[in-house]
Predict the 3D structure of the following.
Amino acid sequence: MRVREDRRRVGVVVAGVGMLLLAGVGCGADDGGSRAGGNGERDGGRPVVGAPGLPPEPVRPDGPDPGPPLRQEQLVIAMLTVAELPAGARGIGPISTVRTTAKQAECQALIDLMHPAQGAVAPKAAHSAAFDLPGREGVLIGELYTYDGRGAESVLAAGRRALAACPRPTSSDAEYTDTERYREVPYARIGDDSLAVHITDGRRTRGSVLVRVGSTLVRVTHSDTKEPDIRLPAEELVVRQVERVRAAAGS
């Protein structure tokens, strides 16, 4: 999910787990992002270092059993609805997904955390929704990914380690190369484990909260904001999303 593409991609049905757009990618160097095949901004087509899907370090099985993965229909039921959002919000459909590769190999686990469907630990099912918020509030994006075993723990733990080691990764998809700045920020402790991140490419911003709820990874993102301050999703919305996942798990 790229900042400038959030509005363009919403309304395109998610291509299912494993149905990613497997396009060739190159690497670039500019902070603002460069378009493939453009006016010489790409760096000569050198290969990207660090293939996606490197397996994260295993999580030690010393915590509570996360439980079985949810079914696809449970994820659909669990997603936030327009009625639970601020007045004036409107649904604008699911988001699409494209394969994204980090230039620096040590950053790939962070990129995979931001694009969970492409990781080596693949989710069993996934569902997403995007909502246009009123006024200049931007876009709210909800994503749910459910895993076998301790997959959700493993993906979140690997992404957190990569964030500490690689706060400014360069990544490429089939069309763009971006260098973005990632920063972990304080947030309420929600679910079994959680991580809040500010992301910016110098023009637009995202505030993203990731929460593990048993076998499911929840991601709620406030995106496409143009204000100088990066805004995280409201805590009550993230809590509501987590509660919906827990309720769906018992259905």
